[in-house]
């Protein structure tokens, strides 16, 4: 039985950082990267070039494959909402990029990544 805390399309939720999100879809975007890169290559989204370099070196040392994916900021337009700060999913195309742009909204700009 679905509880009273269940979400449905049209709901607006407030994240812990105060941003509001209009729920438009309850599906996940986790499969979008698998569609793009297949089952044996991980997609990495980061605006931090130093972190990407460290991840590439770790990838070569471990044999785990990854590919740096673009954070195409223009795709953010499809995630704007008329009733909240954003919607929880973008258009059908660029699903993995849309998911990364959504998550980026919850990373404080002041956070420094220690890419050892």
UniProtKB/TrEMBL annotation:
Keywords, comma-separated and alphabetical: Aminopeptidase, Hydrolase, Protease
Residue ranges of domain Cytosol aminopeptidase in the record: 23-109
GO MF term (any one): metalloaminopeptidase activity
InterPro entries noted in UniProt: Leucine_aapep/pepB, Peptidase_M17_C
Annotated Pfam families: Peptidase_M17
GO biological process: proteolysis
One cellular-component annotation, GO: cytoplasm
Gene3D superfamilies hit by this protein: Zn peptidases
Stated family: Belongs to the peptidase M17 family.
Protein name: Cytosol aminopeptidase domain-containing protein
Organism, scientific name: Gossypium tomentosum
Lineage: Eukaryota, Viridiplantae, Streptophyta, Embryophyta, Tracheophyta
């Amino acid at each position: 039985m679905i509880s009273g805390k269940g979400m449905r399309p049209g709901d607006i939720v407030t994240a812990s950082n105060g941003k509001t999100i209009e729920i438009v879809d309850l599906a996940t975007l986790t499969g979008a990267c698998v569609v793009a890169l297949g089952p044996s290559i991980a997609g990495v989204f980061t605006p931090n070039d130093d972190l990407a370099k460290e991840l590439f070196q770790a990838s070569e040392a471990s044999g785990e494959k990854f590919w740096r994916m673009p954070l195409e900021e223009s795709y953010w337009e499809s995630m704007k909402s008329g009733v909240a700060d954003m919607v929880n999913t973008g258009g059908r195309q660029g699903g993995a990029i849309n998911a990364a742009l959504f998550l980026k909204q919850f990373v404080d700009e002041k956070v420094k990544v220690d890419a050892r």
